[in-house]
Amino acid sequence: MGMDFSTLRTLISRYCVGEENWVDSRTVYISHKEPPPGTEAFIQQRFPDNRIVSSKYTFWNFIPKNMFEQFRRVANFYFLVIFLVQLIIDTPTSPITSGLPLFFVITVTAIKQGYEDWLRHKADNAVNKCPVHVVQDGKVTCKQSRKLRVGDVVFVTEDETFPCDLILLSSSRDDGTCFVTTASLDGESSHKTYYAVQDTKAYKTEEEVSSIHATIECEQPQSDLYKFVGRINIYMNNEPVARPLGSENLLLRGATLKNTEYIYAVAIYTGMETKMALNYQSKSQKRSAVEKSMNDYLVVYLCILISKAIINTALKYVWQADPNRDEPWHNERTEAERQRHILIRAFTDFLAFMVLFNYIIPVSMYVTVEMQKFLGSYFILWDDEMFDEELGERAVVNTSDLNEELGQVEYVFTDKTGTLTENNMEFIECCVDGHVYVPHAICNGQVMPGSDTIDMIDTSPGPDARDREELFFRAVCLCHTVQVKEEETVDGIKHGIHQGKSSSFYISSSPDEVALVEGMNRLGFTYLRQKDSHMEILNRDDKVERFEVLEVLSFDSVRRRMSVIVRCSTGEVYLFCKGADSSIFPRVISGKVDQVKARVEHNAVEGLRTLCVAYRCLSPEQYQEVCHLLSRAKLALQDRDRQLAEAYDLIEKDLILLGATAVEDRLQEKAADTIESLHKAGMKVWVLTGDKMETASATCYASKLFRRNTQILELTTKRTEEQSLHDVLFDLSRTVLRHYGGMTRETSSGLSDDYTDFGLIIDGATLTAVMRPGQEGSNSGNYKELFLDICRNCSAVLCCRMAPLQKAQIVKMIKTSKEHPITLAIGDGANDVSMIQEAHVGIGIMGKEGRQAVRNSDYAIPKFKHLKKMLLVHGHYYYIRVSELVQYFFYKNVVFIFPQFLYQFFCGFSQQPLYDTAYLTLYNISFTSLPILLYSLIEQHINADILKKDPSLYKDIAKNSLLKWSSFIYWTALGIYDAIVMFFGAYFLFDNTTFTSNGQLMTTNTQMMFGNWTFGTLVFTVLVFTVTFKLALDTHYWTWINHFVIWGSLLFFVVFSLLWGGIIWPFLNYQRMYYVFMQMLSSGPAWLSIILLITTCLLPDVVKKVICRALWPTTTERIQKADKLYKGQLSEFTPLASLHHQPKAGGLQRGSENQRNAAHPRRSDTPIKKVMYTRWQRSTNYCTFTPLPLFANGSKRDSAYGGAESETSV
Question: Where is this region: Disordered (predicted)?
Fold first, then answer.
């Protein structure tokens, strides 16, 4: 056939569905002006307005949608069915016993979720109603943001946020550029340059902008922040002039205008079609692993319940098969009941037994769990160690449903900028021809204070070293995209180049460029400004030098370098090139490469961001050739990027190496310590960032994510251009598997510190290729699984150049892998919202990039360092507490209802309750609920300081270990054993009975009145005391509140029973329990029986605990025992490693690594001080050289780096 199915499908879609639904592009009419007649057809497409919606419910769908979500819970649906059964048929218990608790749970949950959604509505309204300035009919008018339409021309002033995605038409700057920060989108707070359309950049007023007659053709909305393809048709004399549009012309919603007075731009994507909105993940209900376990247990207990009801129903009809037992006189059945079909009677009896036994699944457990989560969340709010004085902020809990999930995290996905780092670059040193220069130590040949005690090393440069040195300083001062901003005050702090002299400061698209220019300033060369295509610098002789900027070869992540071509005042033309060492060294033909390379490698080990600087003199002929290459590439409308890359490649060659720089991206306080603790706790840490690979990689070294001996595996665009993706993946897989050999995945999964040799780096473009579904007939179908296998065997993974939605895709990929690990995502910007919402637990950081992450997260903390305590202490406690709560609730209800099941064998299966109605109702509400609620709030099985000091204790509770099926079966078996002991113990006590003279039944051995209520009360008394003592045995952390609640609840039971049976209550029609409890307690043998039965019930659990603690103690039990010996001060005296089980092979490796670290001190250790002297002038000046982290005053700079080699002279 000439036409394949895809073409046919396209045509059907086009002609049957509608034009706007199938087109791959859209046409936007600027200011809604129709094109001139005869140029093109005017087809006005429908676009959404600019309204943003992040809320989940509306006023109309809240009740049905919320009810649907709540009744998806097995427990809620079950209790609804039981409640309806109690309403429909005659059952042994009242409908109120099931309906009231269910109504309470549903109402409380609905109010909580409704309030949270109301806050989201409130935030949406604040955004949607903010004022926006629009140009209409030559005037600027104000309208609400939600009323903005595609095609409107928007007027934006400095420091305003863009209300939608815009195409830049003109700006206040003569060259038509503007500067933008995209911190809330990709995490980069640096300034980026965007360009206006060449034909419209001259329009500076409202009238001029209104006169623009043009249409824009562009692609339909897509989530990729870094891609945009379109063209603008400008009508001049009714003839269209087409100009290409790219991502450099597109201003994204959420970005902020900087260092530009104003701009005019046209709305291209609005509302939920903006790239920011497309990168938002829809907010879904998160459920914890504990809640899933509860639902699994619930299903098992439902099966037990149905089995009990079926068995009792069947046995009832077997029992009544005897004509003498079929219709005893006390049944008093009506004629209608006698005539009913046996199946209907059997079904009714089945439902009645279901209601009788339904207490095995207590709705009060869900109420208690909800209360425990809600009240327990206040311990995070009240934690003073998680209060940040600088911000004045405490940790925030946005949802308490996931508290225990904090103790189950296996993967941590973190943003870099603003999360791990402060995004505050600092210049550390530079190296020129092998000579190292450190600000404040070597500066203009002056000896700094405190340098008299420093060892001296003669590293004097040669005669022409000063010229080379100044050429290097000039190269760094000129090769950048830094802008000078006049007079700005941020947070009350005035930024300036010269303190006390100027009120200007530097801004740039890259923070390390600002750090380099500021570093040159401290070394004597100051960049002043760029004006009229000239750059001005102030040299160390206080003379202004002017350089004409001829060309700028912009930085890109593939080349990993940038260049600038300048003409100096003498007429010489220089090309200055700055970039990563891997992209500069192969292009160098001369210079002291070995010395510079040694220093670069040294600084890379230190975790510093290094750049190399080189230059080339261009003759007039060479410069003309360069101009020809660049102009030809820039005019190309197709494959422009490829042609520019080829031109740059031809220009940036035959370079002369000058030196290298080292810049530090300051980590947040204790960020490295936190990551190290997370590794020790068995968690894998992934860094997902929109930043460049080099910057992100340096941060990973500094934060100890990558260690000194980590072998880096690269899965990047650069490598996949050289090899196919298929080959690269298989090469990496072979590399990893060859290293690990026959080790099991559990051994090499990175959960221990023994095998952490590999780190993976992947970029966004390659990730897209990896996750793309394989085509039929191709071998790319299982790339994702292959990629996951590689990742599992890597101790750390760095994903750079990630779009926000790609971050969420990474999290989802790991979350849905076959191991189903628990994931946590942490970030501080709007670009992190998607992954925060996708992960099992989302944590927002109160950073400098707005509050979007905080608002959309489950928890919010002031700094990254607070994550350590939140997981290792709070998460550990929450999980321990709630797991005990769940198991204990099921246990105490098995003990409660199993005697009721056994009792039916002794009452003719007549559905007679064993316990009084008051006991049935109050058992879970009053008698046994408060002690376990308090336990689940304040229990501390291990001291918090020990949990922080020994992160490996977190592994003991990993993978939901306390709620495994073995533990569940043990608790259930214990409950059945206790129930059998209670029932038959009481039964044999009443075994020998006689009638008294007044017709009462009396036990001959105890002289106690015997009846079904007395029997049930005895069983119930033993039951309440046994389950309460069981909780007391499990309590490790005793306070006066525990004593008050545990013994107080038992006292309340006794007092209630005395009052309930000791007084004739006028509101009761009949009083079955009158005097029963007092009569029972008046018998001495009954007291003895109660004590014996309680002891017999508790004995197996006590014996099991004693034997296990003596013979097979867990790490937790060892620490508890040692802590008692040291009277709660264990963390101060004892090395905790001695309390763990002795490691096998891995321990030797850790020891050897410690020895290596001792031999090679860390960056935070005090380095060896050295000096070098130079002869720049006639006299010798001794210049202090401090190897890295010490300033001249001897104060130690706060830093966190991995181990490094000892300092050596260069």
Answer: 1142-1164
Coil/strand/helix, residue 972 = helix
Rg of the chain over CA atoms, in angstroms?
38
Across the range 1048-1053, mean pLDDT stands at 90
Assign 1066 a pLDDT band (cuts: 50, 70, 90).
low
927: which DSSP letter?
I
Report whether 416 belongs to an annotated binding site: yes
- Topology at the third CATH level for domain 390-419+668-739+757-771+782-862: Rossmann fold (3.40.50)
List the 711-715 sheet strands across, edge first.
396-397, 859-861, 841-845, 823-827, 411-414, 684-688, 796-800, 758-763, 711-715
What is the full DSSP assignment across 1041-1064? HHHHHHHHHHHHHHHHHHHHHHS-
The vertex-944 CA angle with 1118 and 395, nearest 5°, equals 155
Q: Hey, what are 639's tokens?
A: 């494959």
Residue that wins the pLDDT comparison between 722 and 1133: 722
- The answer to the question of whether 916 is labelled as a binding residue is no
**828 annotated as belonging to a binding site for a ligand:** yes
Residue 694 known to bind ligand:
no
| 831 annotated ligand-binding residue | yes
Contacts of 1102 (CB under 8 A, 6+ apart): 1033
The pLDDT-based confidence of 326 (bands split at 50, 70, 90) is low
Q: Which amino acid appears at position 621 of this protein?
A: E
Q: Enumerate the β-bridge partners of residue 563.
A: 553, 577
Q: How many CB atoms sit inside 10 A of residue 1100's CB? A: 14
**pLDDT in the model for residue 1:** 41
Region 507-531 average pLDDT: 83
For the chain, give the percent of residues with pLDDT over 90.
Answer: 10
**Residues with active-site annotation:** 415
Could you state, in order of their start, the residue ranges of all structural domains in the chain? 57-130, 390-419+668-739+757-771+782-862, 421-443+464-487+503-666, 899-997+1014-1120
β-bridge partners, 1196: 1190
- Residue-wise pLDDT tens digits, 223-235: 877 778 788 888 8
SS3 (DSSP) at 526: strand
What DSSP letter does each residue of 382-451 carry, written as one string?
T-GGG-BTTTTB--EES-STTGGGGGS--EEEE-STTTTEEEEEEEEEEEETTEEE-TTTSBTTBPPTT-
What is the C-alpha to C-alpha distance for residues 549 and 560, in angstroms, rounded to an integer?
21
641 is in an annotated binding site: no
Q: What is the third-level CATH fold of 421-443+464-487+503-666?
A: Calcium-transporting ATPase, cytoplasmic domain N (3.40.1110)
Least Cα distance to 90 among 911, 918, 900, 906 occurs for 911
- 707 annotated to bind ligand: no
Q: Tell whether residue 286 is among the known ligand binding residues.
A: no
Strands (E), 1060-1146: none
Q: Are 421 and 670 in contact, with CB atoms under 8 Å apart?
A: no
689 annotated among ligand-binding-site residues: yes
Q: Cβ distance 235 to 221 under 8 Å? A: no
CA atoms in the 13 A half-sphere facing the CB of 98: 26
555 is in an annotated binding site: yes
Q: What is the pLDDT of residues 1022-1038, one digit of tens each?
A: 999 999 999 999 888 88
Sheet containing 131-136: give its strands across: 139-144, 131-136, 153-157, 262-269, 165-171, 250-251
pLDDT of amino acid 328:
55
Q: Sheet harboring 177-182: ordered strands across?
A: 188-195, 177-182, 256-258
| Span 699-709, pLDDT tens digits | 788 788 887 77
> 1070 pLDDT band (50/70/90 cuts)?
low
* Residue 1012 CB coordination number (10 Å): 14
What span, in angstroms and rounded, lies between the C-alpha atoms of 852 and 835? 13
HSE of 1162 in the Cβ direction (CA atoms, 13 Å)? 17
